């Protein structure tokens, strides 16, 4: 198991290097010269050139990229040009907010999806099944920024229950953003829960459990759910990935001080180091999540655990 | 004893094709939600085309009419008017073409590129497959919207760039789906037979492998239009997609957002439009999946 | 005549109401089993044996299944009108079942020890640790070493899994055990082991047994009585002697004629021709009539049960015909 994890971690390195390459070059293609715009209006071309050198932004894009990569390999994400601070500091300062949002949304999503999916599966082909499938489809199809705005209209403008922006009120601030992002994820999760429950519900071992005298409630919650959880977990990894992506728009709506908004700001202000750093970190986060999910399987499914142990 | 028969091959071929399609259509029709999706999509296309003849961009879509600004929905202005006095209903109808075309064109780009990559990966296997899969992994490892943001800022705003950006972002997904669909076909005996018969690789890939692994790609393409529209409107909402005055739905939402406190209908209707469109494509994709592979239906 | 009945079943009817029509799976069977006895329920696939067994546990899936019955008493307790709670207490405790396919009967995500212990924990007032200890005891009883208790089902062979399934069924020493083709999915050598194990355990715990099988050899080996089922009805019922040596029903005769005879290997097998009737569309009269070599006009009428002796009964109106007998030699 340990060897497997190390192998997976090592495999992330080339992936992340490629990500940095792609993003760095894309940022270079973007029109506008950040150094020139940072310099005082009366600066001579020589002075601008000097500034460029000081900030490590001189030379061709290849030179700059290799300098950047060298730093990256020493785990140095470089300096933000627009904020004049180390990228890592800025990123990690705001990361907890995005984590709160992402995990909060997954919590909301599970809270909706698991009961709804189970109910749909245990009441297969009834009105309940139809309603939950339609709801989940609407959830998947709804633009989350729009749903967020509707929530703001309803719960912070009409009823003043929750704030409409910022993260200053702790949990109370988190409610609307987490619901916004969570509903988006709940749709897919509900469908997966339902289909994997339907698969499990047909299995003979549930009949064995019933014949033992296990109550119907426990047959579903203990015997069926633990088996159904395996495919749900697979999707949960990509769901968390989607949540990181969805955080970008959600943070924009709620002025949530997380890394999603930071990335958009960095891209818009043509700050290559900051933008690159953020996207690389996002990508790292996503890859680590997928790895964690893979490990989590092993704990649910003994068959996979045995496979890793070999 | 032996009876000589002649067959009109062309006639037979036509019959076979029709029967396969009609089989899918018969299955598709069974699902009411899929039919709802299809009807809405057709309606949307009709409306979009009609709107281009009914309205003129400079006169009906982008203009100032300050006397009539911010009117609530009424019989005259079904969805009300915005801060410049422009009719929201007309703008939404006219703007359907942006969302639809971005969704469809970007899927065509993604599907075209992804299918080629996936075919090559699945058919040749080995190191080629490995390289393509790794390549896909890199892009799947970046959240779609961030990749979109980076691409849009690199190439600048605009409809064409938006299509290209979303197309590129979704390419790896199609490559993976195609490869997965090709894998079981690759080792089928009829592929072996085609090789022995002397077909070239290209011929085998497009004439034998692809048609037999098309179902999941079709489904993904339909659903891809839906998520393409969503991503496009998200980018516009972030101010990176189609620039404002264009009545793109995401951009309209972003404009209306400034007045959310007092004029919430300005955000309500563009969002509803996005949701209805995305929903109908998703319903279609769902129905197609069941229709193309009845075994999977539960 | 007061018999100590462990099961008293009267007029059980089970049908499945599906989109394609109503499937008449069980059509009015009576079944009485004396305490400690073992009865073999014999018949082809689709005769309604498993459905009968599942309705005793009240586990026929509903919908589409509908179970009707005038009397269903287990050890004097009315199973038919039990509350859900009482049913759960009865299942696994008073009556339990061994399922046909050991490959799918065990939950893949729990260790075999846990799965046995669960039954004990549910029905007996013991701690979790105690239930596990007793589960390990059960495992050893069925011949699986104690140290394998924490292994998962996928680590066991088919025969071993069936032993686990048997251990689960016997964990709380039920009064009545239903074994649904417990050896069909196993190799012949393993079959013998499992049968031997079941016989020993039954003697040890004085469990009554319903053995569902299509293998008459197994019946002869394990059971005291036999009930032959065809198209949802018991068409012949009697002691082992009655049914094997004083066969009365043409279908039972057909079953015996389909078995290869090891002493006379040149003898031709006489298969029963035709197929079991479509259970959505059963004839009004005898369901075996279309395949029966003795069929007459009278067979098209509804049949009534006929007692041959104290223990032996048959569902065949041909015995109304004077001097009727089937060709099978009586070998008492």
Helix content of chain B: over 70%
The amount of beta strand of chain C, in percent, is 15-25%
Using only CA atoms, what is the Rg of chain B?
A: 23 Å
Q: Order of SSEs of chain C, N→C?
A: EEEHEEEHEHHHHEHEHEEHHEE
> What is the name of the CATH topology of chain B?
MetI-like fold
Q: Could you say which overall geometry of chain C the principal axes of the C-alpha atoms support?
A: globular
CATH topological fold name of the largest domain in chain C:
Rossmann fold
Strand content of chain B: under 5%
Helix- and strand-based class of chain B? mainly alpha
Categorize the overall geometry of chain B: elongated
Q: Tell me the distance between the termini of chain B.
A: 50 Å
The largest sheet of chain B, given as strand count, sense and whether it forms a barrel, is: none
Number of domains of chain C: 2
Query: Total number of β-strand segments of chain B?
Result: 0
Main sheet: strand order of chain C: 7-8-9-3-10-11-13-12
Number of helical regions of chain B: 12
Return the domain count of chain B: 1
Largest sheet of chain C: 8 strands, mixed
CATH superfamily of the largest domain in chain C: P-loop containing nucleotide triphosphate hydrolases
Helical amount of chain C: 25-40%
Name a few traits of the molecule.
heterotrimer; A: 310 residues; MetI-like fold; 80% helix; globular; B: 298 residues; 12 helices
Describe this structure in words.
The complex is a heterotrimer of chains A (310), B (298) and C (332). With 310 residues, chain A is mostly helical. Helices cover 80% and strands 0% of the residues of chain A. Chain A has 13 helices and no strands. Chain B has 298 residues and is mainly α. Chain B is elongated and about 75 Å long. The model of chain C has no long low-confidence stretch (mean pLDDT 85). Chain C folds into two domains: 5-223, Rossmann fold (3-Layer(aba) Sandwich), CATH 3.40.50.300; 233-320, no CATH class. The two termini of chain C are 26 Å apart. With 332 residues, chain C is an alpha/beta fold. Chains in contact: A-B, A-C. Chains A and B meet through helix 1, helix 6, helix 7, helix 10 and helix 11 of A and helix 5, helix 6, helix 10, helix 11 and helix 12 of B.
């Amino acid at each position: 198991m340990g060897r497997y994890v190390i192998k997976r971690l090592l495999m992330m390195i080339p992936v992340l290097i490629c990500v940095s390459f792609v993003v760095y070059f894309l940022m270079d293609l973007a029109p506008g010269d950040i150094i020139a715009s940072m310099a005082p209006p009366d600066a001579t071309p020589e002075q601008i050139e000097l500034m460029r050198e000081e900030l490590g932004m001189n030379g061709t894009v290849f030179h700059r990229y290799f300098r950047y990569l060298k730093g990256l390999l020493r785990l140095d994400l470089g300096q933000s040009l627009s904020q004049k601070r180390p990228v890592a500091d800025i990123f990690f300062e705001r990361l907890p907010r995005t984590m709160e949002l992402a995990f909060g949304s997954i919590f909301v999503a599970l809270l909706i999806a698991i009961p709804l999916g189970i109910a749909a599966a245990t009441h297969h082909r009834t009105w309940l099944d139809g309603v939950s499938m339609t709801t989940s489809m609407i959830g998947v199809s709804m633009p989350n920024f729009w749903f967020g705005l509707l929530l703001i209209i309803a719960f912070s403008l009409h009823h003043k229950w929750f704030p409409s922006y910022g993260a200053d009120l702790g949990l109370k601030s988190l409610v609307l953003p987490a619901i916004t992002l969570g509903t988006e994820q709940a749709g897919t999760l509900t469908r997966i829960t339902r289909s994997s429950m339907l698969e499990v519900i047909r299995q003979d071992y549930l009949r064995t459990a019933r014949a033992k005298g296990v109550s119907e409630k426990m047959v579903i919650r203990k015997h069926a759910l633990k088996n159904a959880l395996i495919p749900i977990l697979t999707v949960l990894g990509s769901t968390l990935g989607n949540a990181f992506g969805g955080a970008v728009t959600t943070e924009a709506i709620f002025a949530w001080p997380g890394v999603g908004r930071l990335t958009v700001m960095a891209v818009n202000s043509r700050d290559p180091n900051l933008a690159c750093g953020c996207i690389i970190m996002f990508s790292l986060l996503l890859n680590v999540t997928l790895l964690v999910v893979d490990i989590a399987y092993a704990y649910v499914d003994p068959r996979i655990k045995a496979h890793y142990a070999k | 004893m032996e009876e000589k028969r002649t067959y009109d091959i062309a006639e037979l071929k036509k019959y076979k094709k029709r029967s396969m399609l009609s089989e899918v259509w018969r299955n598709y029709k069974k699902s009411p939600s899929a039919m709802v999706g299809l009807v809405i999509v057709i309606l949307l296309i009709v409306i979009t085309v009609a709107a281009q003849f009914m309205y003129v961009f400079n006169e009906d879509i982008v203009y100032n009419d300050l006397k009539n600004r911010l009117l609530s929905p009424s019989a005259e202005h079904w969805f009300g008017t915005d801060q410049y006095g422009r009719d929201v209903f007309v703008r939404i109808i006219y703007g359907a073409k942006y969302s639809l075309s971005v969704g469809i064109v970007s899927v065509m780009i993604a599907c075209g590129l992804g299918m080629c990559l996936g075919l090559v990966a699945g058919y040749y296997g080995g190191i080629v497959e490995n390289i393509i899969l790794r390549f896909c992994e890199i892009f799947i490892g970046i959240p779609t919207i961030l990749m979109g943001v980076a691409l849009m800022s690199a190439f600048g705003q605009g409809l064409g760039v938006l299509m290209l950006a979303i197309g590129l972002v979704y390419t790896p997904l199609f490559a993976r789906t195609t490869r997965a669909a090709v894998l079981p076909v690759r080792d089928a005996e009829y592929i072996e037979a085609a090789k022995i018969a002397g077909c070239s690789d290209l011929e085998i890939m497009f004439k034998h492998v692809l048609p037999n692994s098309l179902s999941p790609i079709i489904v993904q393409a339909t659903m891809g239009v839906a998520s393409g529209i969503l991503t496009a409107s998200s980018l516009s909402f972030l101010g990176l997609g189609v620039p404002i005055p264009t009545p793109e739905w995401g951009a309209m939402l972003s404009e209306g957002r400034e007045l959310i406190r007092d004029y919430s209908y300005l955000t309500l209707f563009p969002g509803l439009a996005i949701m209805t469109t995305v929903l109908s494509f998703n319903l279609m994709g769902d129905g197609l999946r069941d229709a193309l592979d009845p075994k999977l239906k539960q | 005549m007061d018999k100590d009945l462990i099961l008293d079943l009267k007029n059980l009817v089970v049908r499945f109401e599906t989109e394609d029509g109503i499937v008449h799976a069980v059509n009015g069977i009576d079944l009485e089993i004396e305490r400690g006895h073992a009865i073999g329920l014999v018949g082809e696939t689709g005769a309604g044996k498993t459905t009968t067994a599942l309705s005793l546990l009240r586990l026929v899936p509903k919908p589409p299944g509908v179970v009707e019955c005038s009397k269903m008493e287990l050890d004097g307790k009315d199973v038919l009108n039990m509350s859900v709670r009482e049913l759960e207490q009865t299942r696994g405790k008073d009556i339990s079942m061994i399922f046909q396919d050991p490959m799918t009967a065990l939950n893949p995500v729990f260790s075999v020890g846990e799965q046995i212990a669960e039954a004990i924990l549910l029905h007996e007032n013991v701690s979790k640790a105690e239930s596990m200890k007793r589960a390990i005891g059960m495992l050893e009883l069925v011949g699986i070493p104690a140290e394998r208790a924490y292994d998962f089902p996928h680590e066991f062979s088919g025969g071993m899994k069936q032993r686990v399934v048997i251990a689960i069924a016997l964990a709380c020493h039920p009064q009545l055990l239903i074994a649904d083709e417990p050896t069909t999915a196993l190799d012949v050598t393993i079959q013998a082991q499992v049968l031997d194990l079941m016989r020993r355990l039954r003697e040890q715990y004085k469990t009554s047994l319903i053995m569902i099988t299509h293998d008459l050899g197994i019946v002869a080996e394990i059971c005291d009585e036999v009930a032959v089922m065809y198209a949802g009805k018991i068409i012949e019922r009697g002691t082992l002697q009655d049914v094997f040596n004083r066969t009365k029903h043409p279908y039972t005769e057909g079953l015996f004629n389909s078995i290869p005879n090891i002493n006379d290997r040149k003898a031709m097998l006489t298969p029963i021709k035709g197929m079991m009737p479509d259970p959505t569309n059963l004839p009004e009269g005898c369901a075996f009539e279309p395949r029966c070599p003795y069929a007459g006009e009278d067979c098209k009428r509804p049949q009534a049960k006929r007692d041959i002796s104290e223990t032996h009964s048959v569902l065949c109106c041909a015995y109304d015909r004077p001097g009727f007998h089937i060709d099978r030699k009586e070998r008492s």
